[in-house]
Amino acid sequence: MGLFQALEPQPRRLAQLRPPLGQTCPGEGRRMKPGTLDLETIVDTSPLGGQQLLIFGLCALVAMIDGFDTQSIGLVAPVIASAWRMKASTFGVVFGVGLFGSLIGAFLFGLAADRVGRKPALIAAMLLFALVTLATPLTASVGPLIAVRLVTGLGLGGALPILISVTSEYAPARLRSTLVSLMFCGFPLGAVVGGVAATRLIPAFGWPSIFYVGAAIPLMLLPFIVIWVPESIRFLALNQERARVSAVLHRMKWAAAWDGKLATAPSQTDRSRVAALFTEGRAVGTLLLWTTLFLSLLLTYFLINWIPIIARQSGIGMSSAVLAVASVNLGAIVGCLLIGRLADRQGDPTTFISFAFALGALAIILIGSSGQSSVWLLTTTFMAGVFSVGAQMCTVAYCASFYDTGLRATGVGWAIGVGRVGAIVGPVAGGLMVGAGMATTRLFLIVGVMSAGAALAVFGVGQNVPRPKA
Fold first, then answer.
1. Residues facing 258 on adjacent strands
2. Which of 105, 144, 249, 339 could cross-link with 255 by S-S, CB 3.0 to 4.6 Å?
3. pLDDT in tens, 161-185
C-alpha cells in the first residue's frame, strides 16, 4: 500500500463511495441524489475545494511557524554562548529541556484534541508558544532561558499532532496522505526560513530579533485560525453535535448531499484511548513506529541543534554554519515529496522509507569529514535531510493513516511524543560528547547508526504489521 494511498477506502465501502451532489463517478453516467451520503463518504469523495485548500494552507503556515520557533534556539546558540561567555556544551540542557516540553505538549494536547476538539486545543497551543517566545529575549542567564524554553516547548509540541489531524480529517481519501505530507513540509520550511532569516537578522538586530519575529507571526495568524479553520467535522459527528455539523457542511458546500446521520462511537476516557493504540492488531505497529520516530528525531535534533556549533569549532564561517541547518531542512522537504511519490508507485511505503533511512545513514557519516569545507558541509547536510529527515516526515504521514478518527490525534500525538524523547536525547547526548572532546568523525558515525536503526524499525513495520485501518 503506497504512502499516498494509505488512507484509501476499505473494499467493503467501495460501493458507497460516490462524488458529492451533482458529480458523476469515473466511467459512470449516474448522478447522486440529494441526501444520500454519510459524512465519511462526503469527505472521502469530495473534490478538493477552496475551503479545504484554505484550511490546509493555514495549517501549513502554523507548521512553518512551529518549525521556525523550534529551530530558533539552535540558530542563536553560538551567539548567546559568546555573549554570555558560556561553554557551548551547556546548550545541551537548553536544547533538551525545550524538547522535553514538546514531548509533554504532544501527549497533553493530543489527548485534549480528542476530548475537547481540535480547534480549541490548537488555539491554546499557538497562544502559549507565541507569548512565551516573546518573553525569551528578557532572559539574561541560563536558568531563566531553560524555564522559558520548557514552557515554549509545551505549545510547540502540542500544535503539530493537531495540525496533522485537522489536515487528515478534511482531506479526500485519495489525497489525504499527500496533503498531510505537503502540510508537514511547512515544519522544515519554517526552519529553512529561520536559518536564512537568522543570517540577516542577527548581524543587524541581535539574537533577540529571532524571537520577536517568532512570536509576532503566530499572534498575527491566530485571528485567521479562529475565523477560517472549522472544528473537525468528524470530531463533531462523533460527539453528536448536529447543529455544528450542519454549519460546517453548509460552509463547505456539502450540506445538500448529507443523509442526516451522525457517526456513533462509544465514549472513551483518555486512558482507554491510549490503551486502544495497542488493540485490534495495532500493538506491534505502534511500537515499531514509536521506535522509528524515536531514532529519527534523535538524529534530526542532534543535526539541527549541534551542526552550527560543531561547524564553528571546525573553522567554518557563521553564515555557512547556519545555512547548513537550512540545508538539512530544505533537503527534508525535497526528500519527503520524493520518497512519498516513489513509495506510492511501488505500493509499500515502508520499503522506500527504510531504504531512505539507510542512505541517510551514509550521508550523516560523511558530514563528519567536512573539515573546513563549507561546500562539502552544505552538500552532505542536504543529502542527510533528503534521506533521513525526509524519511522521518514520511513516517509521520504514515502514522496519520494508521489510526481512525477517534484515536488519530492521540495516536499521532503519542507517536510524536515518543519521538520527542529521542529529540531530547539527541541534543543532550550531543552536549556530553562535544564536552568530552569526541572527534567529529566519530560523533557523526554514532548519529549515522541511529538512521540505520530507524531503517530496520520501519522495515519491520512492513514485514510484521497488518494493513492499518483508515
1. 37
2. 249
3. 899 889 988 988 777 777 888 898 8
pTM: 0.74
Q: Does domain 39-464 have CATH number 1.10.8.60?
A: no
Residue linked to cell 525569551 = 136
Task: Tell me the C-alpha distance between 156 and 99, whole Å.
Answer: 9
In the structure grid, which three cell numbers stand for residue 230, read together?
472549522
Characterize 329-357 residue by residue with b for buried, 16 or more Cβ atoms within 10 angstroms of its Cβ, and e for exposed. bbbbbbbbbbbbbbbbeeebbbbbbbbbb
Parse the chain into domains and list their residue ranges.
Answer: 39-464
